[in-house]
Design a protein that fits this description.
- The structure is a homodimer.
- Chain A is an alpha+beta fold.
- Chain A has a domain of 115 residues: Jelly Rolls.
- In chain A, 49% of the residues lie in helices and 23% in strands.
- The first copy, chain A, has 8 helices and 8 strands.
- In chain A, the strands form 2 sheets. In chain A, strands 1-8-3-6 form a 4-stranded antiparallel β-sheet. In chain A, strands 2-7-4-5 form a 4-stranded antiparallel β-sheet.
- In chain A, strand 4 and strand 5 form a beta hairpin.
- In chain A, helix 4 packs across helix 5.
- The termini of chain A are far apart.
- At the A-B interface, helix 3 and helix 5 of A face helix 3 and helix 5 of B.
- Chain A binds a DNA duplex through helix 8.
DNA sequence: AGTTTTTCTTTACATATGTAAATGACTTTT
DNA sequence: AAAAGTCATTTACATATGTAAAGAAAAACT
């Protein structure tokens, strides 16, 4: 719980009263590797704070092909955010890549606290803004960098993770096939 | 100005007092076709509400290649948002594709109003969330749709615009070369 | 109207990446 | 230890898309 409070206050400071109310809606939970936190087609209602472990968010095409759009490492929040905001059915999957310790809360209960504590609304705004910035960075990377450069950036952004998850998940995150990632790796190891 | 107030209230209702303070920081402005609202390397400080006209936001690679990441049509806000949020140098360009009527405000002055009017902070949160959702949709489209499908979606999302801006801007928005867009158009016109 | 500039299309070629299938290396399970 | 399963690499081939350049068409300008 301290990890959560620390994270929140680093995004945007909140009062002690807000801390108490906010912490109170979270419950400890665990996710085992391959467990889903969110799946396609459901109406999402919860958010979670990741204390340990790794997860991925991905889409699946009609033909069943998966595309890893985000990799989550702690400390961070996870949620089927678009679905929570729009109240539409969820389009994405969120799945644990390793066992995770999380703190889970109901999204509606969290957002109800915004009325009571302006500082929490501000925190939420800043968090949302940071999500936007992260997405924009990722967008720039996908468009402006080659697959090889994205691979290098993945290694930098997620140190050590490469050895803990299958390579096809990394390939999918980079937007290439495992075959292509294998070619890239070969290329890098040669000279 | 009514257009702006209508837009804001549709995102998240604000009080009359907030309306007055908010409107007060905006000034009418014009952009002529090809004018830049934001350019790479500067520290951004302003936001604008677009009343009429069209704009594009784009990146430029080291080799000078451009990639249109967003097309703006009214009513909407434009800003080098990531730069405003992070206070880092701006990475993107925003340029008018057609003459535009805009309402311009200083970002800092706008955000200072959040302290005074909680409803404006909420509006800002919801706006930020909607940007996030839009970005996610775009991301899904880029990854899951073919260039041909994205072209169809462009025509649907921006009716009539195709006839008013050069095709290479559309190609860039779709993530393909003008050559490839030309091939796609030919393909579509054949059967 | 004629000239210049801009834009779109087409061609030929190069290249990156995908697909599918086979192989080999590791793990895990029994 | 053997068997089964998972994963990474490799091969051969197909394909989409990029690059560069030329030509055609359209628009803008004088």
């Amino acid at each position: 719980m301290e990890q959560l409070i620390k994270y929140v206050n680093e995004v945007s400071p909140i009062t002690k009263e807000a801390e108490d109310d906010f912490l109170n809606i979270f419950r400890k939970g665990k996710l085992t590797r391959n467990d889903y936190f969110a799946t396609y087609g459901e109406y999402s209602s919860k958010i979670a704070f990741v204390c340990s472990g790794t997860l991925r968010a991905f889409y699946r095409s009609k033909k069943g092909q998966e595309y890893n759009k985000t990799i989550f490492i702690p400390p961070c929040f996870i949620a089927a955010y678009s679905s929570l905001i729009t109240r539409n059915k969820n389009q994405i999957y969120i799945q644990a890549l390793e066992d995770c310790e999380v703190l889970i809360a109901n999204y509606t209960r969290a957002s109800e606290l915004y009325d009571k504590h302006h500082c929490l609304e501000r925190f939420s705004r800043k968090l949302s803004e940071s999500f936007f910035v992260a997405k924009e960075h990722r967008e720039i990377d996908i468009v402006l960098l080659s697959a090889t450069e994205r691979y290098a950036k993945f290694q930098k952004d997620f140190p050590g993770l490469e050895q803990r998850i299958p390579q096809y998940h990394i390939a999918s995150y980079l937007g290439v096939t495992p075959t292509q990632l294998s070619r890239i790796r070969k290329e890098l190891s040669l000279p």
